[in-house]
Amino acid sequence: MFKFVVKKLRWLARIPVLPQVFDAGLMIATMLFDRPRLRAMEMFENAIRRNYPIQKRPHRFGGVGFFIGTTEIGHLHGNGLLDLFVGKSFRAEEIRRGRALPHHVFPDSTRSLNGCRRIPRILPNETQSD
């Protein structure tokens, strides 16, 4: 459903508050049906904020944005999709290794990617235990 909405209904993102409502629905679905992913998302948010001077704020298209000052470095959607702004060589290598995909809206961007489409892959040891 996420891909369909992003590809075919992108214009809906211009309607105030609608992206946040949609992302809240993604988060609710993740809470109900994918607890390991939810735990991994929380651990990722905590780890990145604990180790780096990063601010967490609501993202304009839903989800949580990560910022250094006023510069966005990435954002996390309610379904665990992590979009990052990275260097060209890192992007190419992560896509080549199969650990990331091109960005879902800007696939030809040389600096944006969907980092680890499924967040639990980022923290495999921590997400395996219950």
Write a brief structural summary:
By secondary structure, the protein is α+β, with helices and mostly antiparallel strands. It contains 5 helices and 6 strands; from the N terminus they run αααββββαββα. Strand 2 and strand 3 form a beta hairpin.
Keywords:
130 residues, alpha+beta, six-stranded antiparallel sheet, 5 helices, 6 strands, 42% helix, globular, disordered C terminus
Task: Give the topology, please.
Blueprint: H1 2-8, H2 18-33, H3 35-51, E1 55-58, E2 64-68, E3 71-76, E4 82-85, H4 88-96, E5 100-102, E6 112-115, H5 124-128
Antiparallel strand pairs: 1-2, 2-3, 3-4, 4-6, 5-6
Average predicted local confidence, pLDDT: 81
- How large, in whole angstroms, is the Cα Rg? 14 Å
Structural class: alpha+beta
Distance between the termini: 28 Å
Structure commentary:
It is a single chain. The chain is an alpha+beta fold and 130 residues long. The chain has five helices and six strands, in the order αααββββαββα. A six-stranded antiparallel β-sheet has the order 1-2-3-4-6-5, covered by helices on one side. A hairpin with a 5-residue loop joins strand 1 and strand 2. The radius of gyration is 14 Å and the shape is globular. The two termini are 28 Å apart. 22% of the residues are buried.
